[in-house]
Amino acid sequence: MKRFSLKFMIFMLLSTFTVLYLYSKVSSSNKYAVNERPVPSKASISNEPTQIEKVVLSFVVCDSRFNESLNVVKSVLLFTRVHVHFVIFADDNLRPKFDETLTKWKQITNNQLDFELHRVSFPQEHEQDWMNLFSKCAAQRLFIPELIPDTDAMIYVDTDTLFLGPVEELWQYFTQFNSSQMSAMSLEDDNPNVSWYPRFAKHPFYGKFGLNSGVMLMNLTRMRTFGWVEYVTPIMLKWKLYIPWGDQDIINIIFHYHERAVHVLSCRYNYRTDQCMYGDACADATDRGIFLLHGSRRAFHNNKQPAFQAIYRAIDEYEIGTDPSKYVLTNMDRYFTEASPSNCGNLKEAFLKVPTKTFSHLYPPPDR
Question: Which residues does UniProt assign to the signal peptide (predicted)?
Fold first, then answer.
């Protein structure tokens, strides 16, 4: 009888611990479901795109990336009619230049854009570690949730990215977040023989292939609730000798332990040379067209990827305020045709499909 009682007591004790454990798992799975303002509920989502009045887009720029970052702004404005609010973090030398240029563009575009400028700012403790973690000041993005506390959500992009379609299409993905998701990114790759993370990473990373953070939808409200900024310094200090990609690696480490917090985007929303230099590795982009081109590893500026250079050149030469329908697509097509042969160049239709379709809606030919 005593033995039975002891077994019974052990059983009850184990049952209690099991219930408490399951309760804690359920509670933690709901920890992001706070303040849904930037993300409409699933019940409100339909197949028809919702009317978007304003998009918030951010980037961080230091040193020599000024002209490159202006082309981010140009590419956004070329392919949309919605109001775009740019949140720009820049060093002391560049902020006056941004203020002068973007104030002019704001007037020229009848206030289609507005902007706010912030200085680059890291916590004083470990400031130099943060400033030079990868490229200068790139890690600033990790602290954005606390630096702009009144902003609910934004699209963050690296300065070496170009939109080829309407920014509001990417913004729509916020409506597809479930209650646990606070960010959306594309995979680094989906081929274990090409993707850097499964071959070389010495730190934890997201899923099987890791995430590329060059394009990142950020539900800042949920990131603040999660305590995002509290994570980043301990991770940096623990792994700083093993994270060659800096802030991207820190993001991967966080989402390794919180996989359900990420909504994975198609490779067409972060199309890099890895998707085409060895052959067609992004079927969605081939089928529906490249939406956002990411010239990582200086693909816009060296001669290794002439297809990427062709698109960048056409946008770089466009002047805000002139009629884009006359030259932009023509120049894209011409520079692409003139470019040296390459595997990426074999996918011309994928590069031009989205801008051509978008222009046909925004700039229809006049009736004759």
Answer: 1-28
